[in-house]
Write a structure and sequence with these properties.
The chain has eleven helices and 19 strands. Helix content is about 25%, strand content about 25%. It has helices at about 15-25, 40, 45-55, 65-70, 90-95, 105-115, 135-140, 165-180, 190-195, 320-325, 330-335, and strands at about 10, 30-35, 35, 60-65, 80-85, 100-105, 120-125, 150-155, 185, 205, 230-240, 245, 250-255, 260-265, 280-285, 285-290, 300, 315, 345. The relative contact order is 0.15. It has about 350 residues and is an alpha/beta fold. InterPro entries: Ala_racemase (IPR000821), Ala_racemase/Decarboxylase_C (IPR009006), Ala_racemase_C (IPR011079), Ala_racemase_N (IPR001608), Ala_racemase_pyridoxalP-BS (IPR020622), PLP-binding_barrel (IPR029066). It catalyses: L-alanine = D-alanine. One of its GO terms (biological process) is D-alanine biosynthetic process. Pathway: Amino-acid biosynthesis; D-alanine biosynthesis; D-alanine from L-alanine: step 1/1.
Protein backbone atom coordinates (compact mmCIF):
# COMPACT_ATOMS: atom_id res chain seq x y z
CA UNK A 1 0.00 0.00 0.00
CA UNK A 2 1.33 3.43 -0.94
CA UNK A 3 1.90 5.93 1.90
CA UNK A 4 -0.58 8.74 2.36
CA UNK A 5 0.29 11.92 0.44
CA UNK A 6 0.42 13.62 3.85
CA UNK A 7 2.85 11.08 5.32
CA UNK A 8 6.12 12.65 6.47
CA UNK A 9 9.38 12.08 4.65
CA UNK A 10 12.94 11.86 5.82
CA UNK A 11 15.26 13.56 3.36
CA UNK A 12 18.67 11.92 3.83
CA UNK A 13 21.68 13.74 2.44
CA UNK A 14 24.11 11.14 1.11
CA UNK A 15 26.89 13.68 0.51
CA UNK A 16 26.57 14.99 4.08
CA UNK A 17 26.87 11.45 5.47
CA UNK A 18 30.03 10.84 3.46
CA UNK A 19 31.47 14.25 4.42
CA UNK A 20 30.92 13.49 8.10
CA UNK A 21 32.63 10.10 7.80
CA UNK A 22 35.58 11.68 6.01
CA UNK A 23 35.89 14.35 8.72
CA UNK A 24 35.86 11.72 11.47
CA UNK A 25 38.31 9.56 9.49
CA UNK A 26 40.69 12.51 9.21
CA UNK A 27 40.35 13.14 12.94
CA UNK A 28 41.15 9.46 13.56
CA UNK A 29 44.64 9.98 12.15
CA UNK A 30 46.41 6.73 11.34
CA UNK A 31 43.54 4.61 12.73
CA UNK A 32 41.01 3.11 10.35
CA UNK A 33 37.59 4.71 10.73
CA UNK A 34 34.57 2.43 10.79
CA UNK A 35 30.86 3.15 11.15
CA UNK A 36 28.23 2.08 13.65
CA UNK A 37 25.06 1.23 11.70
CA UNK A 38 23.08 -0.50 14.45
CA UNK A 39 19.40 0.36 15.02
CA UNK A 40 18.90 0.43 11.24
CA UNK A 41 21.65 2.95 10.69
CA UNK A 42 20.48 5.07 13.64
CA UNK A 43 17.09 5.20 11.97
CA UNK A 44 17.98 6.28 8.43
CA UNK A 45 18.50 2.82 6.88
CA UNK A 46 21.46 0.53 7.59
CA UNK A 47 21.78 -1.10 4.16
CA UNK A 48 21.85 2.22 2.32
CA UNK A 49 24.23 3.69 4.90
CA UNK A 50 26.62 0.77 4.50
CA UNK A 51 26.53 0.95 0.69
CA UNK A 52 27.12 4.72 0.75
CA UNK A 53 30.02 4.63 3.19
CA UNK A 54 31.58 1.53 1.65
CA UNK A 55 31.67 3.35 -1.68
CA UNK A 56 33.46 6.20 0.10
CA UNK A 57 36.11 3.83 1.51
CA UNK A 58 34.77 2.66 4.88
CA UNK A 59 35.56 -1.00 5.51
CA UNK A 60 34.46 -1.71 9.11
CA UNK A 61 30.83 -1.66 10.22
CA UNK A 62 29.16 -2.46 13.53
CA UNK A 63 25.68 -3.68 14.38
CA UNK A 64 24.20 -4.91 17.67
CA UNK A 65 22.30 -8.06 16.66
CA UNK A 66 22.49 -10.87 14.11
CA UNK A 67 19.09 -9.94 12.68
CA UNK A 68 20.66 -6.64 11.63
CA UNK A 69 23.31 -8.50 9.64
CA UNK A 70 20.68 -10.38 7.66
CA UNK A 71 18.94 -7.11 6.80
CA UNK A 72 22.11 -5.77 5.16
CA UNK A 73 22.07 -8.28 2.31
CA UNK A 74 25.29 -9.28 0.50
CA UNK A 75 28.31 -7.31 1.70
CA UNK A 76 30.54 -5.43 -0.74
CA UNK A 77 33.99 -6.89 -1.31
CA UNK A 78 36.44 -6.03 1.45
CA UNK A 79 33.78 -4.94 3.93
CA UNK A 80 33.48 -6.51 7.39
CA UNK A 81 30.65 -6.38 9.93
CA UNK A 82 31.02 -7.04 13.66
CA UNK A 83 28.07 -7.92 15.93
CA UNK A 84 28.51 -6.10 19.23
CA UNK A 85 26.26 -8.27 21.40
CA UNK A 86 28.26 -11.39 20.67
CA UNK A 87 26.46 -14.73 20.53
CA UNK A 88 23.39 -15.14 22.68
CA UNK A 89 21.68 -18.43 23.50
CA UNK A 90 20.52 -20.18 20.33
CA UNK A 91 22.51 -17.94 17.95
CA UNK A 92 25.60 -20.09 17.39
CA UNK A 93 24.37 -21.63 14.12
CA UNK A 94 23.53 -18.18 12.78
CA UNK A 95 26.92 -16.84 13.82
CA UNK A 96 28.82 -19.75 12.31
CA UNK A 97 27.00 -19.38 8.99
CA UNK A 98 27.43 -15.60 8.83
CA UNK A 99 30.13 -13.56 7.15
CA UNK A 100 30.02 -11.21 10.17
CA UNK A 101 32.25 -11.54 13.23
CA UNK A 102 30.90 -11.87 16.75
CA UNK A 103 32.21 -9.50 19.40
CA UNK A 104 32.40 -12.00 22.27
CA UNK A 105 31.48 -10.42 25.59
CA UNK A 106 31.53 -13.15 28.27
CA UNK A 107 33.68 -16.13 29.22
CA UNK A 108 30.77 -18.41 28.29
CA UNK A 109 30.62 -16.91 24.80
CA UNK A 110 34.37 -17.37 24.35
CA UNK A 111 34.16 -21.01 25.47
CA UNK A 112 31.16 -21.72 23.26
CA UNK A 113 32.90 -20.16 20.25
CA UNK A 114 36.00 -22.26 20.82
CA UNK A 115 33.95 -25.42 21.30
CA UNK A 116 32.09 -24.76 18.05
CA UNK A 117 35.33 -24.63 16.09
CA UNK A 118 36.57 -21.12 16.75
CA UNK A 119 37.60 -18.83 13.93
CA UNK A 120 38.16 -15.10 13.75
CA UNK A 121 36.20 -13.06 16.26
CA UNK A 122 36.36 -9.80 18.18
CA UNK A 123 36.46 -9.42 21.97
CA UNK A 124 34.83 -6.76 24.14
CA UNK A 125 36.55 -5.84 27.39
CA UNK A 126 34.91 -3.67 30.04
CA UNK A 127 37.27 -0.99 31.36
CA UNK A 128 34.85 0.98 33.50
CA UNK A 129 31.40 1.22 31.95
CA UNK A 130 30.10 -1.99 33.56
CA UNK A 131 27.94 -2.82 30.59
CA UNK A 132 29.22 -5.50 28.18
CA UNK A 133 32.57 -7.21 28.17
CA UNK A 134 35.11 -9.42 29.86
CA UNK A 135 36.89 -7.95 32.84
CA UNK A 136 40.54 -7.10 32.17
CA UNK A 137 41.49 -9.91 34.53
CA UNK A 138 39.42 -12.42 32.57
CA UNK A 139 40.92 -11.24 29.28
CA UNK A 140 44.46 -11.56 30.65
CA UNK A 141 43.86 -14.91 32.39
CA UNK A 142 44.63 -17.15 29.42
CA UNK A 143 40.96 -17.39 28.48
CA UNK A 144 41.78 -16.05 25.02
CA UNK A 145 44.70 -18.40 24.35
CA UNK A 146 44.15 -20.00 20.96
CA UNK A 147 41.34 -17.56 20.05
CA UNK A 148 41.84 -15.74 16.74
CA UNK A 149 41.10 -12.17 17.84
CA UNK A 150 40.75 -9.62 15.06
CA UNK A 151 39.85 -6.59 17.20
CA UNK A 152 39.91 -5.99 20.94
CA UNK A 153 37.21 -3.49 21.87
CA UNK A 154 36.26 -1.41 24.86
CA UNK A 155 33.82 1.48 25.22
CA UNK A 156 34.20 4.86 26.91
CA UNK A 157 31.53 5.77 29.44
CA UNK A 158 32.10 9.54 29.54
CA UNK A 159 33.66 10.49 26.20
CA UNK A 160 31.12 13.30 25.76
CA UNK A 161 32.61 14.91 28.89
CA UNK A 162 36.24 15.46 27.88
CA UNK A 163 37.41 16.48 31.37
CA UNK A 164 35.92 13.45 33.11
CA UNK A 165 38.72 11.50 34.86
CA UNK A 166 37.23 8.13 33.84
CA UNK A 167 38.28 8.76 30.22
CA UNK A 168 42.00 8.77 31.01
CA UNK A 169 41.64 5.85 33.41
CA UNK A 170 39.84 3.71 30.82
CA UNK A 171 42.36 4.64 28.15
CA UNK A 172 45.28 3.69 30.39
CA UNK A 173 43.72 0.37 31.39
CA UNK A 174 42.89 -0.47 27.78
CA UNK A 175 46.39 0.49 26.62
CA UNK A 176 47.91 -1.86 29.20
CA UNK A 177 45.68 -4.71 28.06
CA UNK A 178 46.43 -4.11 24.37
CA UNK A 179 50.15 -4.14 25.17
CA UNK A 180 49.77 -7.46 26.99
CA UNK A 181 47.44 -9.26 24.56
CA UNK A 182 48.69 -7.76 21.27
CA UNK A 183 45.51 -8.23 19.20
CA UNK A 184 45.55 -7.53 15.50
CA UNK A 185 43.66 -4.29 16.15
CA UNK A 186 42.17 -2.37 19.05
CA UNK A 187 39.16 -0.03 19.18
CA UNK A 188 38.05 2.28 22.00
CA UNK A 189 36.70 5.51 20.53
CA UNK A 190 33.19 6.36 19.37
CA UNK A 191 32.48 9.78 17.80
CA UNK A 192 33.14 11.63 21.06
CA UNK A 193 36.16 9.45 21.79
CA UNK A 194 37.70 10.41 18.46
CA UNK A 195 37.58 14.05 19.58
CA UNK A 196 39.58 13.18 22.74
CA UNK A 197 42.74 12.82 20.67
CA UNK A 198 45.27 10.37 19.29
CA UNK A 199 45.79 8.44 22.55
CA UNK A 200 42.22 7.15 22.21
CA UNK A 201 42.32 6.15 18.54
CA UNK A 202 44.36 2.90 18.61
CA UNK A 203 44.00 1.05 15.29
CA UNK A 204 40.27 1.49 14.67
CA UNK A 205 37.57 3.98 15.61
CA UNK A 206 33.81 3.34 15.76
CA UNK A 207 31.90 6.59 15.12
CA UNK A 208 28.12 6.58 15.29
CA UNK A 209 26.26 9.77 16.18
CA UNK A 210 28.70 12.09 14.43
CA UNK A 211 28.18 10.29 11.13
CA UNK A 212 24.52 11.22 11.19
CA UNK A 213 25.05 14.90 11.98
CA UNK A 214 24.86 14.87 15.77
CA UNK A 215 27.39 16.81 17.83
CA UNK A 216 29.05 14.12 19.99
CA UNK A 217 30.33 16.53 22.64
CA UNK A 218 28.03 19.08 24.25
CA UNK A 219 28.94 22.53 23.03
CA UNK A 220 31.37 21.26 20.40
CA UNK A 221 31.56 22.94 17.02
CA UNK A 222 32.82 20.14 14.81
CA UNK A 223 31.99 20.90 11.18
CA UNK A 224 29.52 18.02 10.92
CA UNK A 225 26.76 18.39 8.36
CA UNK A 226 23.06 17.77 8.92
CA UNK A 227 22.17 14.43 7.32
CA UNK A 228 18.46 14.06 8.14
CA UNK A 229 15.73 16.53 7.33
CA UNK A 230 11.99 16.17 7.87
CA UNK A 231 9.34 17.10 5.33
CA UNK A 232 5.67 17.01 6.35
CA UNK A 233 2.45 17.27 4.37
CA UNK A 234 -0.20 19.90 5.09
CA UNK A 235 -3.42 18.07 6.01
CA UNK A 236 -5.56 21.17 6.58
CA UNK A 237 -5.30 24.95 6.67
CA UNK A 238 -7.69 26.79 8.97
CA UNK A 239 -8.35 30.33 10.16
CA UNK A 240 -8.53 30.80 13.91
CA UNK A 241 -9.97 33.84 15.67
CA UNK A 242 -8.23 35.70 18.47
CA UNK A 243 -8.97 34.03 21.81
CA UNK A 244 -9.54 30.54 20.33
CA UNK A 245 -7.55 27.66 21.79
CA UNK A 246 -5.47 25.29 19.71
CA UNK A 247 -4.66 21.66 20.45
CA UNK A 248 -5.04 19.30 23.41
CA UNK A 249 -5.44 20.88 26.81
CA UNK A 250 -6.15 24.28 25.29
CA UNK A 251 -2.62 25.23 26.33
CA UNK A 252 -2.25 27.72 23.48
CA UNK A 253 -4.70 30.57 22.99
CA UNK A 254 -4.44 32.63 19.80
CA UNK A 255 -3.35 36.17 20.70
CA UNK A 256 -4.71 37.41 17.36
CA UNK A 257 -6.40 36.06 14.29
CA UNK A 258 -4.13 33.37 12.91
CA UNK A 259 -3.78 31.09 9.94
CA UNK A 260 -2.92 27.57 11.10
CA UNK A 261 -1.39 24.82 9.01
CA UNK A 262 -2.02 21.31 10.37
CA UNK A 263 0.87 18.99 9.44
CA UNK A 264 0.78 15.18 9.20
CA UNK A 265 3.60 14.69 11.71
CA UNK A 266 3.47 13.81 15.40
CA UNK A 267 5.08 12.01 18.27
CA UNK A 268 4.26 8.60 16.76
CA UNK A 269 6.76 9.63 14.07
CA UNK A 270 9.38 10.47 16.70
CA UNK A 271 8.72 14.20 16.58
CA UNK A 272 8.56 14.40 20.33
CA UNK A 273 6.01 16.34 22.37
CA UNK A 274 8.91 17.75 24.38
CA UNK A 275 9.96 19.78 21.32
CA UNK A 276 6.78 21.78 21.85
CA UNK A 277 7.00 25.49 21.07
CA UNK A 278 10.67 25.13 20.06
CA UNK A 279 9.50 23.35 16.90
CA UNK A 280 9.61 25.30 13.65
CA UNK A 281 8.36 24.56 10.14
CA UNK A 282 9.56 26.57 7.16
CA UNK A 283 7.04 27.63 4.58
CA UNK A 284 8.54 29.43 1.62
CA UNK A 285 11.66 29.91 3.72
CA UNK A 286 9.67 31.64 6.45
CA UNK A 287 9.90 30.19 10.00
CA UNK A 288 6.48 29.10 11.30
CA UNK A 289 6.51 28.07 14.98
CA UNK A 290 4.61 25.09 16.36
CA UNK A 291 1.59 26.15 18.41
CA UNK A 292 -0.27 23.99 20.91
CA UNK A 293 0.62 20.49 21.98
CA UNK A 294 2.06 18.03 19.49
CA UNK A 295 -0.39 15.18 18.89
CA UNK A 296 0.27 11.55 18.00
CA UNK A 297 -0.13 12.13 14.26
CA UNK A 298 -0.46 15.91 13.84
CA UNK A 299 1.02 19.23 14.82
CA UNK A 300 -0.05 22.79 14.15
CA UNK A 301 2.09 25.70 13.04
CA UNK A 302 1.42 29.43 12.78
CA UNK A 303 1.31 29.96 9.01
CA UNK A 304 -0.07 33.51 9.20
CA UNK A 305 1.06 35.57 6.23
CA UNK A 306 1.96 32.58 4.07
CA UNK A 307 0.20 31.18 1.03
CA UNK A 308 0.41 27.57 2.22
CA UNK A 309 -2.37 25.28 0.98
CA UNK A 310 -3.64 21.81 1.79
CA UNK A 311 -1.49 19.20 0.05
CA UNK A 312 1.68 21.30 0.20
CA UNK A 313 4.81 19.83 1.74
CA UNK A 314 6.91 21.89 4.15
CA UNK A 315 10.27 21.48 5.88
CA UNK A 316 10.33 20.95 9.64
CA UNK A 317 13.53 21.85 11.48
CA UNK A 318 15.39 18.82 12.88
CA UNK A 319 18.89 19.94 13.79
CA UNK A 320 19.88 17.25 16.30
CA UNK A 321 21.95 19.35 18.68
CA UNK A 322 19.39 22.18 18.76
CA UNK A 323 16.48 19.76 19.19
CA UNK A 324 18.28 17.99 22.04
CA UNK A 325 18.97 21.27 23.79
CA UNK A 326 15.34 22.38 23.42
CA UNK A 327 13.78 19.09 24.53
CA UNK A 328 16.36 17.71 26.99
CA UNK A 329 16.24 14.46 24.98
CA UNK A 330 19.50 12.87 23.85
CA UNK A 331 20.42 13.27 20.19
CA UNK A 332 20.72 9.48 19.93
CA UNK A 333 17.16 9.05 21.18
CA UNK A 334 15.77 11.70 18.83
CA UNK A 335 17.47 10.13 15.82
CA UNK A 336 16.80 6.46 16.50
CA UNK A 337 13.23 7.24 17.55
CA UNK A 338 12.18 8.36 14.07
CA UNK A 339 9.20 6.19 13.18
CA UNK A 340 8.41 3.82 10.35
CA UNK A 341 5.74 5.96 8.66
CA UNK A 342 8.37 8.11 7.01
CA UNK A 343 9.32 7.58 3.42
CA UNK A 344 13.12 7.62 3.56
CA UNK A 345 14.33 9.53 0.52
CA UNK A 346 18.07 9.55 -0.17
CA UNK A 347 19.28 12.57 -2.08
Amino acid sequence: MLPSPASPRLLIDRDALVANWRLLAAMSGAAACGAAIKADGYGIGAAETLATLAAAGCRDFFVAQWSEVAALGPLPAGVSVAVLHGIQHGEMATARASAARPVLCTPAQVAAWAAAGGGTCDIMVDTGMNRLGLTPAQAASGLLDGIAVDTLHSHLACADEPAHPLNARQCADFTALVTQLRPCRAALANSAGIALGADYHFGLTRPGLGLYGGQPVTGSTLALQQVVRIEAGVVQVRDVEAGASIGYGATFVAPRAMRIAVLGLGYADGYRRALGASGVARIGGRPCPVVGRISMDLLMVDATGTSVAEGDRVDVDFDLAAAAAASDIAQYELLTGLGQRYSRCWT
